[in-house]
Amino acid sequence: MLEKTDQVTEDIGQVMPNRRIYLKMKSLKEAQSIFFSAFNFTNFLKTEVISTTESLNRVTAKPIFARFSSPNFHCAAMDGYAVNAELTFGVTLDQPKELTIGKEVFAINTGYPLPDNTNAVIMIENVVEKEGKIEINKAVYPWQNVRKVGEDIVATELILPPNHRITPYDIGALLEGGIFEVEVKEKPKVIIIPTGNEVVPIEIAQDRGIEKGQVIESNSWMLSSLLNTTNAICEKWPVVPDEFRQLKTTIQKAVESDAHLVIILAGSSAGSKDYTVLALEELGEVLVHGVTIMPGKPTILAKVNNKPVIGNPGYPVSSVISFEQFVLPILSQMQGFVYEERPKLKVFLSCPVPSKLGIEEFLRVKLGQVGKNIVATPMPRTAGSITTLTKAHGIIRIPAQREGIEEDEQVEAELLVPQAEIFNTIVIIGSHDLTIDLLTSELKKIDPFLNISSSNVGSLSGLMAIKKGRAHLAGTHLFDPETGIYNLTYIDRYLPEIPVKVVNLVIRHQGLIVPKGNPKKIKSIEDLTRSDVLFVNRQRGAGTRILLDYKLKQLNINSSQIKGYDCEEISHMAVAVDVLSGRADVGLGIYAAAKALNLDFIPIAVEEYDLVVPETLWETKKIQTILQLINSHKFKQAVEKMGGYETSKTGMVKR
Amino acid sequence: MLEKTDQVTEDIGQVMPNRRIYLKMKSLKEAQSIFFSAFNFTNFLKTEVISTTESLNRVTAKPIFARFSSPNFHCAAMDGYAVNAELTFGVTLDQPKELTIGKEVFAINTGYPLPDNTNAVIMIENVVEKEGKIEINKAVYPWQNVRKVGEDIVATELILPPNHRITPYDIGALLEGGIFEVEVKEKPKVIIIPTGNEVVPIEIAQDRGIEKGQVIESNSWMLSSLLNTTNAICEKWPVVPDEFRQLKTTIQKAVESDAHLVIILAGSSAGSKDYTVLALEELGEVLVHGVTIMPGKPTILAKVNNKPVIGNPGYPVSSVISFEQFVLPILSQMQGFVYEERPKLKVFLSCPVPSKLGIEEFLRVKLGQVGKNIVATPMPRTAGSITTLTKAHGIIRIPAQREGIEEDEQVEAELLVPQAEIFNTIVIIGSHDLTIDLLTSELKKIDPFLNISSSNVGSLSGLMAIKKGRAHLAGTHLFDPETGIYNLTYIDRYLPEIPVKVVNLVIRHQGLIVPKGNPKKIKSIEDLTRSDVLFVNRQRGAGTRILLDYKLKQLNINSSQIKGYDCEEISHMAVAVDVLSGRADVGLGIYAAAKALNLDFIPIAVEEYDLVVPETLWETKKIQTILQLINSHKFKQAVEKMGGYETSKTGMVKR
Predict the structure, then answer these.
(1) Over the range B179-207, which residues count as b (16 or more CB within 10 Å of their CB) and which as e?
(2) Most exposed of A337, A451, A485, A556 (fewest Cβ within 10 Å)?
């Protein structure tokens, strides 16, 4: 999968017959400075006068000065008695003084205006009230305990500078200062033009579904949602097919409209059907074509009719990264406010990550706090998979001049979720099982604030993660051929110095996953050696792989006899998808995976899938909540319902 | 001002005649847990089905599973030729092979569906095209360069868990998965009820302005803007006067409506006209009255008709702090998503800040970056001044069990502005002078993006700040009695290892500040020894203090002969206020301070007020802009106009 991704987003750009190359390839920094400096944004937007109460997040066009002072009168800052301070001068403990209520002093509440000829307030705590009079034994000085006129805002003083983004607090200050209308920059208008013959608008997909070869037009909705924080007005245009003339005239119409920014979706790379760059070359000036980022490389930055026009890549993740690097910042530049970057955190990667030299990679990661460490687990890097973004907690940027990041190197991650979510993340590393996904969704129901980040790296790597203090839980189903015992002997071997608890999650059925109807009539492990049978295997260290090798040994089958033995996938679902797609005729995996894709299943063995927990974490809320869930009747029922599982040992603490 | 503030927000709660006390005072943590746990928020909100495209930031009511797989067909991951992989088996460099286009291989673009009977794509880079045929010298394996069905989303798999806040990315994933409608929590409805006889709605203020004793009703607009990020629908009700029955019936109507949360503005403290707590006691249960935070103490947390009802303090800053601590979190709890806290930064304070034991203070600060250090300058602590929030860059929380924060202690500041804004702040630490305030306001005019944060801690502390790398500029007027030279000799002594530039800001007149008409006929320093004269001094290290001591030495006057020599103030204005209020008969300070309070001034000396700049910063835009301003005719004119200053050396680089 990793390989494939690299190709998807990398190789497009190389010299090849009947294709163009990226003539204006730039690094991210170069591209941004070329693009942003190509326009003069002062006065790019008109201004408009709107009600102050409607002005949240808008940007001031001029300095704004107060019309009223606040307060506009001297008022009591305390409850007590208003007085002319001079009447109290010289008063001390030895020389107390009586003052007549209603004549010399006047009862007053906080916030109320001072009576004429008074300039101070004696705190109620400092008076002894006798009928008609008060006695004091302490002087007050002029304006003591008084909020003077203009203490907060003095009429004519500057409330807000120009190019200031209006906050809720500002709205309070503006109204206090008697400013009921403000002149602000107009909202920038953005036109989004989806393209592609295969693309189906959602209205149609909603009615008729989609046919083979069609794709739902979702990018424009995702991007317009990303505009949410920018004040921009978004206008979505109908999908344009891959037809040069039509694309060109559509772009022309867009740049000649009142829009301030035009974005063309997909068709931005250098393939034979990617017309955007040609159209833009004819209509105006292409400033950048191709940015050395991954995902996001097929980005076009152009200037047409003095307006910024952007060719946005078609793969959803590339589309988002490119959009966030070029569209969002330019919209804040137009309005003249500082573009707000995401908060960052120092993290450790749960495994080393190689990366291609010369490419700045935006690596999506899951984040969880284990002890003092914040652990980042890399997610699939495919540009075509939007779910890698929806499930990510952060993004780590791997600089172009680096060939990757070491496992024990601390790096910065940009946060995609509230930081609290990370502290509430339970890091499960190890073998994949669908009941982990079930755990994830059920957990949300009993505690919406907890969430699970699970990485499927195989049982052994899971134990290693526990060893390094990089996981709360490891999911493992390691069969020991010598003893016939699951997991415990491996734990003794690999985690001798770390006291852990071991809890059974499920007993599950492993078996051969074959296409519906089992066309090749596969009955047993022996059939894997047939020449007409293509097998798909799991990666080394995976429990399923060990189980297979054990069975082969029992049957004296040499792995070289099995076609596809060396072709590896890293999850049960991946194996099932291979069988569904015809990439393989058979794979070894769990029933639930076969069922999910409506494939047939031939049981081979039952195995114990356990969770390993460091004892130090056993009492934590995270772990206890998980255990409570695992032991619940509801969870066990749900597991049984999936089929291919037994829950007779579920929740049992084996050690 | 500091004194006054403390009283404003502190003393309200003490026992005093004709007032109630806070019976249910709690710490912030206590108050939050009491309040949040008093309600069962599961099913507190109904659910509704809305279009996926409208669902940004809404919260899922149920787990959402995919209906379609994405992609729903095998498609080319690369541009090239689709082929049945078996046709390429055995092909190598030595054994190349020709394949017929349209028969054995089919030209295909990225993203397009594979023709029937093909299962792989040969990259265009790896073929030599001859008419009608292509030659290859490398085999492909089945499904190489192919995006398989379900690579991103497999039908039936979980796209979103329940209680998940929908992001732009999620919208993309939902649409890809064929989910066009989602079931989400309804929007929580909030009713805001302003109260107070003095409060004027903005519509009226806009038409008629406001009269003495009136206040514009701005809090409700500020708070409803703060709801912007919460999905909440806000209903503002008309202002209710300070009248018990009317307030009570209004609250009753509100809690019996379909609202989920009710907020009453002002009248939440324990003053004789604060009816809210009484009304709530009669209508339901008051859980908390009074929270030990500053600002924000007069907060009421109640439960009426099983709904949360909040009494929100009247002073704008108290109102905001209370709102952010109780209203925003409870709205996210209702919907079941994690409340997003502000990003935090580690900072140093520009001066030590004492704080009241037992009170958790929310200290507003300006932030500036000096080298690696981020320096926080405390702002006025008055609860009544909304502009302290609009101008603040961050908030530092001083825990209740602390009596303050030391100068060299690193603390956390919550960011109120984009981090970038902090880099535009010029930090000036040192002796106070009114021309620094002038500099601040003039700077905004020539560069709205730059701003100055200045703290007045005396000349010596200013030099120390430069030494510690905590200031861009230090304002100093240190007179050296030995040499008669200003500043330079002190710089040699205290900053030997730090190369600095020294620029004159102004020459200013120091003199004796006495009440209007100079009742005690004070003429010279000698008069300070008179037994009928009470003096007020400046703090140790202040240039003015050193000047005085020098004069005393010249005149062989012993400081013990001066009544009030040990009574210290930390700014010129503070000294002037003491004289104005009668606390002292005379103080030493600058003309501008005397003038500001309309006091008399007897000149004693002229002194050189210089700015010290580390050479490393000299060329920076910040410093150069400041220098340009100081040298401008406009600035010098403005200084002359203030009186008590000479600008003959202004802008001169003395070193």
Answers:
(1) bbebebbbbbbbbbbbbbebbbebeebbe
(2) A556
